[in-house]
Design a protein that fits this description.
- Residues 10-274 form the Nucleotidyl transferase domain.
- This is UTP--glucose-1-phosphate uridylyltransferase.
- With 300 residues, the protein is an alpha/beta fold.
- The chain has helices at residues 41-51, 66-71, 76-84, 88-99, 114-119, 122-125, 146-156, 217-224, 235-244, 246-249, 267-280, 285-299; strands at 10-14, 35-36, 39-40, 56-61, 102-107, 130-133, 137-139, 159-165, 175-181, 187-195, 206-214, 252-256, 261-263.
- Helix 8 (217-224) packs across helix 9 and helix 11 packs across helix 12.
- The relative contact order is 0.16.
- 1-O-phosphono-alpha-D-glucopyranose is lined by residues 114, 134, 136-137, 174-175, 195, 207-210, 234-236.
């Protein structure tokens, strides 16, 4: 496989999920819009794509996801009201999300799984490698992952997944990869993949976290991938096909991430993300940390 020479520029963000773990908050509000401190979770993900040089973002949405489109669009009425009040700093905050990236939207229609969501991106992506970012995974902006994955894809061609070592008791929540080492400490070659295995059957404790850089050959494979775990078309299964036959779309590598990641689709981790990011904010941090310290030492 010839390593890719074209700069990757497109990011795909599947965002059609129902967010049942956060009901009733997500009854009428998309889970992606839940705030992490004062920004919706999805904005962190778009910012991450943009920081890695991907300014063309396609969101794969579904019913009841209109607020996502509105969030990344202009809101002239609100902007005008803030302008009249001379509230420049809030005006800038409001404009930030609409100026971030070139946004595109496609609807998934039937919710047939992550692999199906990615397949919906095929007409937009065309024949270039592209990135996929899952909205539930929040990668701390100080621990860049995607740019390292893009670098790895440019070097080796094929596809690249993000991996993290997890407690074996947790592996059933993730796609799991069997790997072998490469010359680079943080890069492995993926030899086998299985979606959400039982701990006893897992080939390793390397979990796929929600970042992928994919060869466009994945579309052809996905269109032929039968429903797998949970009756859904699984991206992991398509990647397994790619890892097993390099003539189709090149090898699959993994970048092993050791930074900070929060699963904002999990209520406990969502709260941890908010507390940690709030503590570290220059504006909110000092007061919040003092309160938190008092709360933990005196009131718990
Ligand atoms: C999806 C993927 C899984 C991956 C996970 C990362 O699962 O299917 O392979 O490990 O994202 O967050 P989900 O969490 O959407 O069920």
């Amino acid at each position: 496989m010839t390593p890719s020479r074209t700069r990757i520029s497109k990011a795909v963000i599947p965002a059609a999920g129902l967010g049942t773990r956060f009901l009733p908050a997500t009854k009428a509000t998309p889970k992606e819009m839940l705030p992490v401190v004062d920004k919706p979770a999805i904005q962190y993900v778009v910012e991450e794509a943009v920081s890695a040089g991907l300014s063309d973002v396609l969101m794969v949405t579904g019913r009841n996801k209109r607020p996502l489109e509105d969030h990344f669009d202009r809101n002239y009425e609100l902007e005008e009201a803030l302008r009249r009040k001379k509230d420049e700093s809030r005006l800038a905050r409001v404009q930030e999300s609409s100026d971030l990236a070139t946004m595109h939207y496609v609807r998934q229609g039937d919710p047939r799984g992550l692999g199906h969501a990615v397949l919906c991106a095929a007409p937009h992506v065309g024949d270039q490698p592209f990135a996929v970012l899952l909205g539930d995974d929040l990668i701390d902006p100080r621990d860049p992952l995607l740019s390292r994955m893009i670098q790895t894809q440019e070097l080796h061609g094929g596809s690249v997944v993000a991996l993290m070592e997890v407690d074996p008791a947790q592996i059933h929540l993730y796609g799991c990869a069997a790997v072998k080492g490469t010359d680079a400490d943080d890069v492995v070659r993926v030899t086998d993949l299985v979606e959400k295995p039982d701990a006893a059957d897992a080939p390793s404790n390397y979990a796929i976290i929600g970042r992928y850089v994919l060869d466009p050959a994945v579309f052809e494979v996905l269109s032929k991938t039968e429903p797998g775990r949970g009756g859904e078309i699984q991206l992991t299964d398509a990647l397994q096909t790619l890892a097993g036959d390099e003539t189709v779309g090149g090898p699959v590598h993994g970048v092993v991430f050791q930074g900070r990641r929060y699963d904002t689709g999990d209520r406990g981790d969502y709260l941890r993300a908010i507390v940690r990011l709030a503590c570290e904010r220059e504006d909110l941090g000092p007061d919040f940390r003092a309160w938190l310290h008092h709360y933990v030492t005196e009131e718990m």
